[in-house]
Amino acid sequence: MQKRLVLDQKQISITLSRFCHQLIENHDDFKDTILLGLQPRGTLVLDRIVERLKEISGIEVPSGRLDATFHRDDFRRRDIPLKANETRIDFLIENKKVILVDDVLYKGRSVRAAMDAMIAFGRPQKVELMVLIDRKFTRDYPIKPDYFGRQVNTLESQYVSVEWASQGFEEDAIWITEKEVKSV
């Protein structure tokens, strides 16, 4: 299988720091700002952002985990049903500035579903999107990130793989790989 490195551990670290500085510039004291990690992989990015923000600014930004499984438009169209993850939002988001955090923006379907799921917790004042990788030219919905680490051009036959050392990989890295072709 052919792999192409998009971001290595050092570049991911720099990207996460840049995200934090952008958030500090755009949201001052974070008084009315919350971060929501999209389950399952966006929460891994969220945890790093929250930790880095606290290191840089000393502010502990309210954060939560949002699962949008039951709001997906393909939920009932699969042979094997999707398994839901935990939603953990211990606060209302009414009139708050919400930053949705995910690892890869592909078709935009997960983000659309997340916005539907989020409404159960209140109507936000504003919603922004932060992703490590923006797969350009693949959208099914008119969704674009406000914060992104890297934009990549990919084919439908390719997959963006985000690896974290905390999950047992050698080091943090983001790769583009070819999707495995199932032989008949």
Summarize the structure.
With 184 residues, the chain is of the alpha/beta class. Helices cover 24% and strands 29% of the residues. The protein has one domain: Rossmann fold (3-Layer(aba) Sandwich).
Topology summary:
Elements lengths: L2 E5 L1 H19 L5 E6 L3 H16 L5 E4 L30 E9 L3 H10 L7 E11 L10 E7 L4 E6 L9 E6 L6
Helix pairs in contact: 1-2
Return Rg in Å. Answer: 17 Å
SS elements, strand count = 8
Termini gap: 19 Å
Broad shape: globular
The low-confidence runs, each spanning 5 or more residues with pLDDT under 50, are: none
Mean pLDDT across all amino acids: 91
Q: What's the number of structural domains? A: 1
Strand order of the largest sheet: 3-2-4-5-6
Order of helices and strands: EHEHEEHEEEE
How much of the sequence is in beta strands?
Answer: 25-35%
What portion of residues is helical? 10-25%
User: Under CATH, the topology is which?
Assistant: Rossmann fold
What is the CATH C-level name? Alpha Beta
Question: Mind summarizing the main beta sheet?
Answer: 5 strands, parallel
CATH architecture label name: 3-Layer(aba) Sandwich
InterPro entries: PRTase-like, PRTase_dom, PyrR_bifunctional
EC number: 2.4.2.9
GO molecular function: uracil phosphoribosyltransferase activity
Keywords: Glycosyltransferase, Transferase
Name the features:
3 helices; 184 residues; Rossmann fold; three-stranded antiparallel β-sheet; 24% helix; alpha/beta; EC 2.4.2.9; five-stranded parallel β-sheet
Overview of the structural elements:
The structure is a single chain. The chain is of the alpha/beta class. It has a single domain, classed as Rossmann fold (3-Layer(aba) Sandwich), CATH 3.40.50. 24% of the residues lie in helices and 29% in strands. The strands form two sheets. It has a five-stranded parallel beta sheet with strand order 3-2-4-5-6. The chain has a three-stranded antiparallel beta sheet with strand order 1-8-7. α1 packs across α2.
